[in-house]
Amino acid sequence: MDANDTFDPTFGFTLDELLKIQAPPPPSDFEDFWRETYRIATARTPDYHIEKEIWSPTPGVKIIRLRFTSHDGFDIGMWIARPEHSTGGLLIGQGYGNEATPPTAEKLPLTVALPCIRGLGLSQCAEIPWEGSKHAAYGIKSRETYVIRGAVTDIWEAASVLLDLFPDTASNLNYRGGSLGGGLGAILVPWDDRIHAAEINVPTLAGPLQFEFKLPHSNNPGTTRREAALSDPDCWRTLSYMDGASAARHFKVPVLMTPALADMSNPPPAQFAIANAIPPELRILRIREVGHRAPTPADVELGKELDEIRKVLFSPERGRLLH
Asked: How many Cβ atoms sit within 10 Å of the Cβ of residue 66?
């Protein structure tokens, strides 16, 4: 019998219990660490070049591929889709399941930037494995060298590139990410005053809380992090800083948050720890039935509602969502 047939994707939690989940306190210098990391990532003029413009399936939308050199020397590739009449910018946080293809499916007239974080997609390299479970272990013995810290800085630096190339996006710059991209967003958006709103979907990276829950798959990036943390105090310390729940307490912008009640790849309690940490006055909470699986009929209907919410969230009218 397959493990999927017997595993409980709710991890035994009801919705009422999930809504009460709280993450443990972070290290005392958690905020200082991330503020200093942001300062380092944004302290210099972006070093980038446009590689080419490619064919676009959408009339009026220009697609360009470009590369930039990160503050610590990694070669990072990214896509930008630029509509003729742009109303702002949207950073897409990459997850392990995302293809490194141009972002052509957006329904809003935003200039969309999809940076491929170090080691994945357009940013594959000799040093970092591109397989998810191995990528998740790269540099894990130190918070300074861990790939997740680097991925956060890659997205901050991609924002700098976008703003330098298209300054008009500064007035309405937004973030959206799911799974790994959701966890990265929970960590990076609170410290970046350039971002006006965010959507966080079934996020990973909930810090030490996630290590309480064993996943059914050995090749899952979450399993890699859990096993490293439980076997090595240095890894546990590193991962205590890669904590979207602790960072989410510092959100200062509206956040559309969509955790799942059932998810075999990412424990729902970890997702809800991030959701519950967002200041209630900024949180727009919608709950999925399942995560990391084909949507249920109810989730398909929810998707239609989310499309309508995004129209307002990623616009200057976003304030009316909070009333």
From this structure: 22
